[in-house]
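Protocol step 4 of 5: obtain the predicted structure for the target chain.
Materials: sequence only (see below). No template structures provided, no constraints applied. The aim of this step is simply to have a reference model before the mutagenesis design in step 5. Sequence pasted as it appears in the construct record:
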Amino acid sequence: VQLQASGGGMVLTGGSLRLTCAASGRTFSRDAMGWFRQAPGKEREFVAAVTWSGITTYYASSVKGRFTIGRDNAKNTVYLQMSSLKPDDTAVYYCAAGGYFAGGSAGSPSYWGQGTQVTVSS
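Step 4 output (C-alpha cells):
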C-alpha cells in the first residue's frame, strides 16, 4: 500500500495550496482518509479527515474555516484545499488512511504516506 502526497510548496501569508494524496495497493472507499502535519520541533498533529462517504468531515480547530478536505473514491484520492495560509501552517503534511479517525482519541489511521513540505512565509 502506498499513499503518494503531492502539492506542497512555498507560499506567502494569505496564499493557497491544494494537496493531493493518491492511494494505491488497496482501495479505501470504505475507510476514512485524512491529513496530519508536523512542524519543526513539534509532535505530529491531526489536521482533517473525511469519512468513507465523503459526507462527514472533521477539522482541527486551527484550520477550520480555512481548509477543506474532499475525496474521490473512484480515484482512491483525498484532497486538502488550504486557503488563507499562515506561517503557523508551515509543516510537513502527511496523508493517512484506513479504518476510522477523526482527530483526538477518535481512532488512528492504519496507513501513512510520505510527507510533503508546506512553507508559508510572511
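Step 4 remarks: The beta strands are 2-6, 9-12, 17-24, 33-38, 45-50, 57-59, 67-72, 77-82, 91-97, 111-121. The mean pLDDT is 95.
Proceed to step 5.
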